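[Solved] Which block belongs to which protein?

Original post:
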Amino acid sequence: MSSLTSAVRDLQRDLENKTNDLSKLQKDIAKNHQVRKKYTVQLGENELVLKELDLLNEDANVYKLIGPVLVKQDLAEANSNVRKRIEYISAELKRLDATVQDLEEKQNSKKDAILKLQQRIQSIQTTKGKA
């Protein structure tokens, strides 16, 4: 009887640890989604800037805001900078997507493990109740 009680205690401790791990994974996923949202907004803004730059004539004046000052910038340089920014943001989004997918797979396996532990605890307690 006491071995069943200690087995249940061990399983409950294991269940608690796995639940804490699941909670951490869910927080990481939420944080990742926030960062992804920020990058998505930045990507949209930069694509809009690129479209605006493409509409300009080659002799048009382009200014870049650096702190409180507008600094004149070459159109080709501005175009290049925006394209590089878009490349970087797109790469970050791909990396974040892969990370989220990995975290979600880990989350699903934790959920499965927790469910199996809960079922084992229930079956032990049912067996103990009948004894």
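(Second protein starts here: sequence line, then its structure tokens.)
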Amino acid sequence: MDVSKLLAAMTPEVYERMSFAVETGKWPDGTPLTSEQRDSAMQAVMLYQSKYNTEAQHMTVAAGGEIKFKTKAEFKREFATSPESTSNTSSDIARFEHDEL
């Protein structure tokens, strides 16, 4: 299949399903991928990312085809400003006795 036709036919939902399959080794319904399916899905995911991935995460293909690598400092900044890191501002720890559990 022609690359441009493949990318035109690939919706974001199809991309997500293929990306899940490549990451986990199985389709969303639980069926394992064959090695040929894994290779083809990985190529399709990388092609899709190279065309549409404008906000590339670490170790993904960014728009333009380059692999995005983040530095340690970039990760620290990203996690320092993430909503998860600021949602629990209390430093209290819940403590229980063994017989209270």
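Accepted answer:
You had them paired correctly. Confirming on the second one: DSSP finds five helices and no strands in the chain.
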